[in-house]
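tool=predict chain=A
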Amino acid sequence: MTSDTSLTVGSPSSPNTQGWQKTMRDVNPTVLRGVLASPHKSFYFALAVSAALALMGGVAWVLQIVYGMGMSGLNSPVYWGVYITNFVFWVGIGHAGTLISAILFLFRAKWRNSINRSAEAMTVFAVMTAGLFPLIHVGRVYVAAYWMAPLPNTNNLWVNFRSPLIWDVVAISTYLTVSLLFWYMGLVPDLASLRDRTKGLRRFVYGVLSFGWTGSVKQWHHYEAGYALLAALATPLVISVHSIVSWDFAMSVQPGWHTTIFPPYFVAGAILSGCAMVYTLVVPVRAMFGLEDLIKKEHLEACLKLTLLTSSIVGYAYGIEFFVAWYSGSFYEWSIFKLRAFGPYSFYFWVMVFCNCIFPLLFWSKKVRNTIWLSMVICVLINVGMWFERYNIIVSSLVEDFVPGSWGHYEPSLIEIAITLGSFGWFFMWFLIFVKFFPFISMSELKLVMPKLNRRDHQKSPSS
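tool=predict ok
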């Protein structure tokens, strides 16, 4: 085998790779090994834990529907609590998938090819999870769904299309549709590879899903044009969707919310949480399916660099928020920000600051970036911090407004905590099911960045 036919997967001195090299012929069997064979036992343990959490959340939701919203901690004046926190959090998680897949594709960043499939799947499942929380928040969903639908009714009620909440529905529905198409289109060539390697029912299912893909020159031409078009279409959605989510807050006159920094602030925070979640997902699955040779440390390190960049932007936004609140001269605005940092909710504020701004500074060290377990811990802490950021924004701004007589306090109930944990179980359950039945890495895109087979090797090697 000649040297120009291979892809080096790690430094020659690495104890794990020992200079071993992958060729194009090795990509498909390596990636499909986890789909066609049994993964590590830890996979089934993780799937069982995720399913149990999802079931717990489902039971808690049923109890809330049966006994009413009094089982939650929502009260006057805090009508938005953990449920809307979860909604904003999961919408944010979905943003890095489009960023890594679409924007980096347009900029031809080659490091994305090993992790873009997981990022795209993360986007779809995160938006699916986020869509549950407006339904959970309204209480008895079978009653509320009727009145929320823009349909003629006997009470002559109609949806207010000038409300940012309706803009949310339109923006997120569009985002989910485009992300789903983008994700599925990238899967088609790999589904055809699965079709050719399976039998029976699985062959039939993969054959239907691959739409008769044969890999002809004409099909590849249309595929590449369509994929680039969807990438260009999805790119502005990264900015627009979470900007619209931020308008739910910024369009009000509530102190702590009515600020113009929210759209870029929310977008940067969404990308930060999404990048951290990509790393959190990729590292365990990489170990479960033995994909260390295709998802290299260089790919993971590039993801951490993007995380560090967005962490710096978020830290700057935190500082600007406090400066603008002080510089505005508004007593109510400045009081809210002092309450966040030194009031009864200061614990959530400082967890947010340390997890999102202080701990990610360790990524300036290359040694930390290349220490996978330590980077994994920091990324988990970033996701914890981003959840508390949304909680801090929502709750601390609602407990005290313009009238002291209406001030209150909020603590989440056990039902809300169970539903929150259930949402994480729901998300991880679908993601693990996906990586078991579909290729976790885009085989076709990975081959594009590998050195081409020369004519002699191509004639000797079977088609992949």
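Residues 1-21, 452-464 have pLDDT under 50 and may be disordered. The chain has one domain: 3-141+160-454.
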